[in-house]
């Protein structure tokens, strides 16, 4: 009886056309580790499907996923490569696997005698993996919220009134590096971005608050300024890891959530890593 169970997936489809990718979205993993950070990742896992097969075996994709992704395991680019290899091992009709991950970081910042618990961190990673070849394309990225003030309003107010009045806004930086094979881990991108802007604080005494606000107001920046600084910092990070090949590309997006306007301001940079390093030499 069990031997006679039909395998509908392996039937010949009515239209013999290959499917570029089929798989699972919103694979919510248990908490995992990235260095000293805890991350709650969400995965995507796909394989391609040849024209002679009607459907992919989705249970095989999920089983491959849980064999590789373990609770409290270390999250890295190598884990994604291992997942891609496992997807191809259990789906012998496929020759390409696509996997990706995005997650939020949770960590403790030691400042003074009161620790600050933060969830202000994001990481992203993904790759396309070909059977017998390896990675065709990989990306590694991160994101963080920060604070900024408007340099235009400050300059005009100082000119007109003799005081540097301006407005503060929250900004979000997201950036990624893309290449054939990367050595830069997502958490490294996040840490570099965290040094580009002043990140929000959760515990501030009155004197600390005044000092912090002063720092933010003295470091006024347009989104364009932040995007340029982040691009340069990521290019240098890539260079330090040897990821400076001709196919290396970086993407940076900065959004400013304005306080005195209803709209959101956005600046984007896309540049080749080698090209950018040449410009700033």
TrEMBL record:
Gene3D superfamilies associated with the record: Urate Oxidase (3.10.270.10)
Matches recorded under InterPro entries: GTP_cyclohydrolase_FolE2/MptA (IPR003801)
GO molecular function terms listed in the Swiss-Prot or TrEMBL record: GTP cyclohydrolase I activity
Tree of life domain: Archaea
Keyword check for Hydrolase: yes
Assigned keywords, A-Z: Hydrolase
Pfam families hit by this protein: GCHY-1 (PF02649)
Protein's UniProt name: GTP cyclohydrolase IV
